[in-house]
Amino acid sequence: MTIAERVRGVVEAHRGERGALLPILHHIQEEFGWIDPQVVPVLADELNLSRADVHGVISFYTDFRSEPAGAATVKICRAEACQSVGAERLVADAEQVFGVKVGQTTPDRSVTLDQVFCLGNCALGPSAQINGRLHGRVDRSRLVEILAEGNA
């Protein structure tokens, strides 16, 4: 089955829903791990939208990826509560450790570094979500330790 056929199947599962584009994009990202630019014209055609409309939604929402993520995804909270206890230092340390900026993936695809603006773990900041698992009181050494142990 081709990517286009799989995408059409996802669209069919959501056809008739109001505002179907967002649930469709979430479904595609869940299935493929990212939203390949190849699917934009398929979605535009199936949903009677312009390619620009589809691309605009994908690029606006930071949860949608236009390229595959790394094996580990690190999201560091940068909301005010975490900032007040060292989140900016943690971001700078993470960028140095991984050699990429926020929003990028390491060349070997081992880590994707992202930011969020509240993980709801304010009392234990700075907080990070690593492969979907929440961690509090994260500093440079704890971040490296979590990834090294695979305890994400």
Automatic annotation (TrEMBL):
Pfam families: 2Fe-2S_thioredx. Its cofactor is [2Fe-2S] cluster. Keywords: 2Fe-2S, Iron, Iron-sulfur, Metal-binding. It comes from the Bacteria. Belongs to the complex I 24 kDa subunit family. This is NAD(P)H-dependent oxidoreductase subunit E. It comes from Saccharopolyspora mangrovi.
